[in-house]
Amino acid sequence: MKTNTNSYTIIYSVVLVVVVALMLASVYQALKPQQDANVMLDTQKQILYALNQDRDMTNEEAAKLWQNLVEADDMIDANGNVVEAGKQGGTEAGFQHLNSAEAKDGKLVVFRCKVDGETKYVIPVYGNGLWGPISGFIAVNGDKTTVFGAYFNHEGETAGLGAEIKDSKKWQDLFKGKELFANGDRDHVALSVEKKVTDPKTQVDCVTGATITSNGVADMLKAEKGGLQPYVKFFNAK
Predict the structure, then answer these.
(1) Hey, is 117 helix, strand or coil?
(2) Where is pLDDT greater, at 105 or 172?
(3) What is the pLDDT of residues 100-124, one digit of tens each?
(4) Neighbours of 236 (CB within 10 A)
(5) CB 191 within 8 A of CB 160
(6) What is the pLDDT of residue 181?
(7) How far is residue 25's CA from residue 43's CA, in Å, rounded to a whole number?
């Protein structure tokens, strides 16, 4: 075949594209298991942070803590009943449905944990901030009425005030001890982030200068999908 013709150029280009695509696909498949493992470990660390564990933990320490503290990653229905039970240190039940449509369509994820001999429940939450999605985990005490700890993540947020929801442990610690409900109303989640706190039992000060992101956290906590509100019957169950 003549190499100075248009047909040769086209065929050569097509072959080159196919070869490069196959090489990239092979590299992706080779790296995917490690990428999935890294994502899982990062998520586990976020849950452990919500349980007030050391944020400077190594990967090995995180793996050990996960096995010791997380009793099960359960799936529950809208009535708070377990429909798929996880296992000690598990990642095969509720963990697999984090951020999935199934977990938001009648089935919910709850991590049952034990910290210093006391039961804690970690709830995943999802919402929207100024520059993109925000997410987090709220750890609830065994009484199902008060917050044990919280961790929020906002990968799309630029460095600055809005990123405080992720980077500031001091701000996240403000959630500790807050009550989920107010004035005896256990049908509606009252936990919120406010620019002006009027109920210190249920409200946390917003991040100064990051009103939109703070509002995103507030909306996320009370949302009917992705928030704490769908867990009301679980919180009320004995």
Answers:
(1) coil
(2) 172
(3) 666 666 789 999 999 999 999 999 9
(4) 14
(5) no
(6) 97
(7) 26
